[in-house]
Amino acid sequence: MSGARAVEPSGWAVERFGRHAGAVAAAVPVQLAAAHAKVHAAHLAAGLKKRSPYGVTLAGAVRENLAETARELGESVRDVRGYEYAVINDHALFPFRYADKPKPFDRARLPANVSPTRRRLFQAHGPQPPDTLFEVDGGLATEEYLGLREAFEELGASTRLVCVFFTADAENGIHVIHWGEAHLEPDRTFTWPHRERLPLAPVPLG
To answer: What's the CA gap between 97 and 109, in Å, rounded?
Structure first.
């Protein structure tokens, strides 16, 4: 895999990605750095001063690069509402830039205008909250709740979400990367049954 060096994966990563665990752990930082380099070059070429175009474009570039990793490994890339997601060993990589400056991962929060698709990805494919004591009674569950719990068949009903949370800005690139399992709370914050920090990769030249 171009630019990625095999690393010793954690036991958690091996459980999720199997024989590809080391390659995926090595590729994620490389692909984020490559996405930043591509978007930063375009940002400069277009003479853009606002940060918002960088963030939106970076999100798409990161998804594309992770999809490229899945293809190189002979794994799946699945389309969900027009967005491609890498699915490796039945685990979908969900990248999310949670801030444009270094910020503790436990302060990550989805924006107020988050799409129903993103909420449903977390509710249907993410981990269950660690303090759940009972299932919601079918007669009490609202239609909205049931809709959020419905899995995306195009992603694979049994596919689980692995979150790749990072911070980045156009001038400095990627600041920090965390990956793991994140449960979305009602206030749009997250609890993490498992989380690991990944090393940064150098920004490719040229």
So the answer is: 10
Report the predicted TM-score, pTM, of the whole model to 2 decimal places: 0.87
Give 12-51 pLDDT, tens digit per residue: 999 999 999 999 999 999 999 999 999 988 767 666 666 5
Q: Which amino acid is at 104?
A: P
Strand ranges (E), 11-81:
76-80
Strand partners, 94: 163
Strands (E) located in 63-189: 76-80, 83-88, 91-99, 160-169, 173-184
**β-bridge partners, 197:** 178
Q: Hey, what amino acid is at 80?
A: V
User: 55-64 pLDDT, tens per residue?
Assistant: 889 999 999 9
In single-letter form, the type of residue at position 119 comes to: R
Q: Which long-range contacts (CB under 8 A, 24 or more apart) does 66-69 make?
A: 66/27, 66/28, 66/31, 66/93, 66/95, 66/164, 68/31, 69/1, 69/23, 69/24, 69/27, 69/28, 69/31
Q: How many CA atoms lie within 13 A of 189 on its CB side?
A: 6
- Among the listed residues 100, 104, 102, 108, the one whose alpha carbon sits nearest the alpha carbon of residue 163: 108
Q: Output DSSP code: residue 159.
A: -
Three-state SS for 57?
helix
Beta strand 83-88 pairing with 76-80: antiparallel
**Strand, helix or coil for residue 80:** strand
Count of helices and strands (H, E) across the chain: 5, 6
